[in-house]
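ping. complex inputs:
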Amino acid sequence: MPEFQTSPGMRDILPPESARWRRFVEVFALTVERAGYGQVISPLLEDLGVFQRIGDATDVVTKEMYDFVDKGGRHIALRPELTASVCRAFVQHRPVTPWKVWYHGSQFRYEKPQRGRYRQFDQVGIEVLGADDPNLDVEIIALGWEFYRALGLTQVKLLVNSLGEPEDRARYVAALAAYFEANLHQLSDDSRTTLQKNPLRVLDSKREQDAAIIAGAPRIAEFYSEKAAAHFAAVQTGLAALGIPFTVEAKLVRGLDYYRHTTFEYQGLTLDSAQNALGGGGRYDGLVESLGGPATPGIGFALGLDRTLLACDDEGVFAAPAAEVSVFVVDTTGGAEALALTTQLRAAGIAADRAYENRSMKSQMKAADRSGATYAVIIGTHEIEAGVAVVRPLRAERTPDGEGTQSSVPRNLLIDHLQKALS
Ligand code: HAM
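pong. complex structure:
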């Protein structure tokens, strides 16, 4: 075993998988830029305080943060998510609202690694600051849905809920805490601990022992103010009007503390239930204020790239694109011809590769075959003397006549010939 390997929960993404990652982000960018979102690129590190504003009752903040003191004595953290960073950037730069942004990048959480759960993972996401129109909630949920469709995923379930206004949520949390306290003896040990920190999260428990008591717990809907109920009703009407199927899930509280009103999650039906959240989001109307900005409504989502690709594998969609060149230059005269010709081909926009170290013809032809190229261009001493190159089709079915006939082409016509043959 080599001395150094990736740390637990961190992975190398190698070609061709890396090309798939890039394409994932490209498809996302196309989907959301069409809707007026611009990209935000923010630092991987922030002042620890930025993330502490997410809430001190969430594991992401209390247990999973990668934080350290830098050489200047600042307490810094690697970002565990991007919503807080985007809000920090909003407060710092005060852009015109509604501010519609999208992002892509790595996040860091010190979690127990397993399939679909990593310590460094990637997200794409969007956030909108400065509008509390329920139509916007619908737009955002619909964009996530559309993106999954663009990838080819169909086994995705959309769950929605509302946590009401901050006061509704607070009254609900109090009622929930009282209910669980009264039934403490029936709760699992883990849920008792969770109850002390965040009664809402007890609803997330997947333990069998807790199922009955959770089923009888008070429902958030009983605590909605008129405004919260109307907002949530409008979101549901909007989703239905767009024909997006959803399920109202009263137990959907999500892992972060900043949510108010609408919350939602996209679940991958092919994935293991512990890691089946492909993405999620919601409103976080108090976050900008807690970071020192003016009262500003906010809503967004983040979609996990790693996990969504696992779902794509399960459904057999959005495969890694084949990393292929169009032309492979085989030079049996030492390699200088291959250097000149590949440079010329690439300048003309034709993807071209070659072999190195003056290998034998046989070995170079093997490499040509492995490269996936449609044509090998062969140059030997004889070709140099005659001022030609041999164009040998490697994939007959891709050639214009479908038969893959080899030809000898004058060097000054070669680029033109290949451009036509490849078009
Ligand atoms: P989150 O639910 O913590 O929300 O993460 C969103 C998605 O990131 C998850 O659904 C999952 O796909 C992926 N994810 C989270 N943790 C891991 C992990 N350890 N390994 C692999 N994938 C993971 C947020 O981060 C919020 N910032 C979303 C948001 C945006 N809310 C409003 N705006």
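The chain has a mean pLDDT of 95.
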